[in-house]
Amino acid sequence: MNADYAVWLRGIEKQFPGVIACAGADLRVRPGTIHALLGENGAGKTTMVNVLAGVYRPDGGEVWVDGQRRFFQSPADAIAAGVGMVYQEFRLVPTLTVAENIVLGSAPRLLRSAEIEQRVAELSAAYGMAADPNRPVWQLSMGERQRVEILKALWRNASVLVMDEPTAVLTPGEAAELGVALRAMAEEGRSVIYISHKLDQVVAFCDEATVLRHGKTVATIDDLEDVDLTSLAEMMVGAAGGGYGQRPPALEPGPEVLSLRGVSALNDRGLPALSDIDMTVCSSEIVGIVGVSGNGQKELAEVVNGLRRPTQGRVMVKGQDVTDAPPGDRYRLGLAYVPEDRLGVGLAPKMSVVDNAVVRSYRSQRRGLMLVMDKCIKFCQDLVERFGVRAGRLHDPVAGLSGGNLQRLLLGRELAERPAVLVAAQPTRGLDVQGVAAIHGHLVAQRNDGVGIVLISEDLDELLALSDRLLVMYEGRVVVEYTPDVTPRTVIGEAMAGQVRA
Amino acid sequence: MSEEALIGLFVATVQFGTLVFLAALGELIAERAGVLNLGVEGMMAMGAVSGFMVGLETGSPWAAFFAAAAVGALVGGLHALVSVVLGADQVVSGLALTIGGLGLAAYVGRNVVGERPETLFTDLGIAGLADIPWIGEIFFDQPPVVYLTVLLGIAGWFVLARTRLGLAIRAAGESAPTTDTAGHSVMALRSGAVMVGGACAGAAGSFLSLYMAPGWVEGMVAGRGWIAVALVIFGAWRPGRLALGALLFGFTLALQPRLQSFDIELLGVEVNRISPALLGILPFVLTVVVLVIISWRYRHRPSPAPAALGLPYRREER
Amino acid sequence: MIRIVWRPFQALAGNRPVLARRENVVPATQAVAFLLGIVVALILGVILLWTSGHSPAEVYERMFDSAFMGTDSLSRTLERATPLALTGLSVAVAGSMGLWNIGAEGQMMAGAIVATGVAMMADGLSGPLLIALMMVSGIVGGMVLMLGPALARSHLRVSEIITTLMLVYVAIRVVEWLETGPWKDPESFGFAVIEPVPEQAALPGLFGRANIGVLIALGLLLVFWLAVSRTAWGYELRLAGSSPDTARYAGVSLRRKVLTALLLSGGIAGLAGAVQLTGSAVRLESGLSNGYGFAGIIVAALALMRPSGVAVVAFVFGAVQVGGQSIQTLGVSSAISDILQAMILFGALVAVVFFNYRVRWTGPGGGSSSADPAEPDPVEPDPVEPGPVEPDPVEPDPVEGAA
Fold it and tell me: Is the pLDDT of residue A497 over 60?
């Protein structure tokens, strides 16, 4: 029986301080199949595969690989057992070459670079995954880096390949190529465990599936052809209603509150990230920015908020040129920002709830040189009440709050002083259904109140449910504008891949 | 200035170069694995005193040399335990190692000040080569530690650049999670590298007390440990450049006590009127300049400094 | 080759230790860690003294008496604690922004150099005026030495750890140069020493050997505490130190904050040099900084960069140093005080780790055996729920897993 499964994780339990990540979850994967591991954020998917990869030791449960019970003490043990893991955040050393990265951990005792590069080249040719063995990894694109990760697993002749959210960084074209490569591996008898949120891809690529919810296995599907997208989605979120509500009726847009004229900017690596962006946001409207991640959305938000200098073009808030203004000045003019990195950019993790509540407004809590603590606390209490933040003690570090409460605190702080424009980047990523609903409610209420909102998201459904207008970004440009009501999803999808149909 | 004095200067340059190179090679290995160890000065002092005492006791300079390396590795092991295994701050731990190491060396060696072992390292002429004028005397009529250090330098380069272990060490210094998930134990790699670094520093200390001084007196390391730390940066974390830097720094160290006797003019400056103290500034100032240049040149690409240098790593943190 | 270290161990014990974060962090403070560090250091000291044939009780009694018993002893402790508190504060100012000033030792020297130079030029001034002038020049001196590292850090992101450290020896060598050359005292009968500071520049005494440097240090600690915890400037400093990206987002100029924190840090260390010069030293000499700058780093680290902690730790370290000096009459090397200081730090560092983590022995049992009986029970293993939709969930097979 056991030999029937390439991988069998049985009753896995894993607890972290304050979080139960897995509470007896199961996962069985047959050899030669591509197995989807599904579930909402926090359902325990990543914990499960980290147990399989030897990164976490389970508190309880059994790990079986190739019909043998395994006791992984470290990633090395898992690798030796044939488990190859491709992490969501790539585990590559930027300064080492492609070849060095591929052989790291399983290199011959002596490195003969010519020989190794030769063998790496052969391997990449065999699977149709082009990679120059000689180049340092920091010069590669995200898609190329992922190829290196997969080659790394193949180099160790992994019989089980685990891919955690592999397509988040890929264009649809690259994602399709990945699907072909994975299928080729499955046909050789390897098993692939594929974690993804993108259900359409799951259905297209995978043979079988396991659905996790709250750290437990809620469904095991032997043949994905028997299931449709809606029921898969229902299994992930539990009862029906995981979808988003009806789009609120559009309002008459008010005056222009934010505009960009011919804005270009570079990314962190000094390469062009935005080119010649023109866009306008009026009060009382939500403008959705849609695109595969890494097409300039992050840089756009940063340029608007003064965290990145444009190389060209002007940024105006309420008709005033703020291109050279620091972020604080922009905020005082009425530009609020909910950044993608909640903890680390939006909030300072080690500082208290109070300290974080006044990040934007501490200058107005002063008397002379001194910061008036009573005023700060009062401000914070108001915020916590108005936005329903469950914050525990106000003087404890904010890092102890749950994702939903962090986001309520952050959004509340940005809205506290009645901005004219709000830029919200990935405001609901990783939140539970309740949290998402609360954030959506606030966004719509603010729009109805006259705020102009730029909503950047990777969740097309969210954008379709909230936006009054949709701008599609591709390779640093706004390639087309759509009206969500009348545009089919497929058209938007193609535009995200750079193919604009009028 | 006589020819003899000039040869003496270069002979001393090679010896001082050896001293700082050996200590810096160890620090380089530790830093390439991602551990900054500011305890070199303390480890050298411990090596100097323990080597000297073993030399007194056994009369064998080699026994003393290896004992000093072992003591250095042990002292380095304390830094590894505190900063690598337990994940405390590397800067603080390393400084405490220097302060405590200097103190312990002074304490342990209080009764051997002024003594002299029967046998010390002696110069070992390499047959055939030692007779070459100038070159022979400077490079091939040196104590065996000099030759051993050259071999260690080559071995260090070879291991780092050409072996699986070296690849793992370099990876551990760039990205600990990557190295860990690739199946190498970051803790073992880093602890090992720090202990090897300690052994090198300890051995260098004994070269000081058993050949260069020779003798033991409190404070005899006199900042050479810090020069070794500087040298690693000056050498941009590469063994080859480290060797070149060692000769340059060794030259400034060798020149300092001799400066007064050189009555020549260089670039319009009378050399013997330069203060030896100001010459002693040179390695540190050069290192700062090199560091600034590196930061400027590499502002758009990964710098040669190990990316994870100074960052502790613990696996199951969440 | 490294694996060899672990394999036999594993084979013998069948399991190995890992550090696991505690479910409930031990509610002990840094103060407890510091006390534990002292205990650890004292125990190690006992072993050291014993093995070298001294009576630990006698030595410790002498150390304690000479540091604490009587006003003269206390005044000596305060005299030593003053530069430690100032360098500790210097390191803490940079540290509260997440920066390391490893060069307080050198900045002390730079401060003393400039203060001496000013005193040479203005030795006609009255006492208070000259002292004030020398204090200001001390601050300027420390800042000047810090200027390069601060600018390199704020504008080029050059690690301040290395640059500040490198300049320590630059400053010390400059003093050596001044001693032998430009500032050599003509009345020193050939000794390479600099002439003593003018008599009227000596800091007024408080009692015994303690001078008003103690008050300067305490006052600065108070000001710094107020500034960091109660002003908008301090809020920005904490924000920038704890989360630089958040600070940028809040409109705080990181460059300016890095620059001011480092320059202030350098200035305070420079002031320590001027206080030492006018308070305890006779003249500028290469031994003036005497390791206070390096010890200040340990003081600040033990104090977690907090001003109140700096005061306490500096006092204890001052006592250890005075005690170390006093036992020389018993024939014990004063080096013991350096060993004790380092061991206090190591002991405290280790204690802090064990407040937050416990050792867990993981064996081949798949799970982990816990060494901590207080660990909460793991979650009840729930049977696998069938999914809510048509596809048949695979039934758990009861026979399997009996391996």
Answer: yes
Q: How would you class C225 by CB atoms within 10 Å of its CB: exposed for 0-12, middle for 13-18, buried for 19 or more?
A: middle
The number of helix segments (H) and strand segments (E) in chain B equals 12, 4
Q: Least CB-CB distance to B183: which of A92, A105, A108? A: A105
Q: Does residue B314 belong to the interface with chain C, where contact is any CB pair within 8 Å?
A: yes
Q: Which of residues 179-238 of C touch A (CB under 8 A)?
A: 230-236, 238
**Record: contact B99-C335, CB cut-off 8 A:** no
Nearest chain C residue to B275 by CA: give it.
C177
pLDDT of B242 strictly over 90: yes
What b/e string do you get for C169-193 counting C-beta neighbours within 10 Å, with b at 16 or more? bbbbbbbbbbbeeebeeeeeeeeeb
Take residue A482 and report the two structure tokens written for it. 């759509």
Give pLDDT, residue A485: 79
**pLDDT digit string, tens, across residues A319-339:** 999 999 989 899 999 999 999
Q: What value of ipTM does the predicted structure carry?
A: 0.90
**Where, residue-wise, is CATH 3.40.50.300 in chain A?**
2-237, 256-345+419-496
Helices (H), B80-211: 90-108, 135-139, 144-162, 164-174, 176-181, 186-207
Residue B95 C-alpha, separation from nearest chain C C-alpha, in angstroms: 7
| Amino acid code (one letter) for B83 | S
CB C54 within 8 A of CB C332: yes
DSSP for B78-98, please give it. HHIIIIIIS---HHHHHHHHH
Domains and CATH numbers, chain B: 3-297 (1.10.3470)
**The two three-digit tokens of residue C168, written as one number:** 């320590």
Note whether A44 and A60 are within 8 A (CB).
no
Count of structural domains within chain C: 1
Pairing of strands B265-266, B269-270: antiparallel
CA–CA dist C342, C320 (Å, integer): 11
Give the distance from residue A268's alpha carbon to the nearest chain B alpha carbon, in angstroms: 9
A209: which strand partners? Answer: A36, A221
**Radius of gyration, CA atoms only, chain A:** 24
In this complex, the residue of A95, A152, A269 whose CB is nearest that of residue B174 is A95
Instruction: Say whether residue A23 is in contact with chain C using an 8 A CB cutoff.
Output: yes
Residue C382, in any domain of the structure: no
CATH of the domain at C121: 1.10.3470
Say what angle helices B90-108 and C292-302 make with each other, to 10 degrees: 130
Residue C355, in any domain of the structure: no
pTM for this predicted structure: 0.85
CATH superfamily of this structure's domain A256-345+419-496: P-loop containing nucleotide triphosphate hydrolases (3.40.50.300)
- pLDDT under 50 in chain C at which residues? 1-14, 364-403
What is the per-residue pLDDT for B121? 82
As beta bridge partners, residue C362 has C16
Q: Identify the domain containing residue C219 by its residue range.
A: 81-348
- Give the tokens for residue A195: 């974690």
Q: DSSP class of residue B212?
A: I
Q: Which contiguous run of DSSP H or E holds residue A257?
A: strand A256-266
Q: How far is C343 from chain A (nearest CA, A)?
A: 29
Q: Do B167 and A111 touch (CB under 8 A)?
A: yes
CA distance to partner chain B, nearest, from residue C100 (Å) = 8
Place of tokens 């060494």: C371
Please report whether residue C212 resides in a domain: yes
Q: Which of A23, A28, A326 sits opposite C382 (nearest CB)?
A: A23
- How many alpha carbons fall within 13 Å on the CB side of residue C245? 13
Using CA atoms, how far apart are residues C209 and C80, in angstroms rounded to an integer?
A: 10
Would residue A129 be called left, alpha or beta, if left means φ above 0 and alpha means ψ between -120 and 50 degrees? Answer: beta
With respect to CATH, is domain A2-237 assigned 3.30.470.20?
no
Chain A neighbors (3+ CB pairs < 8 Å): B, C
> Residues in chain C, how many?
403
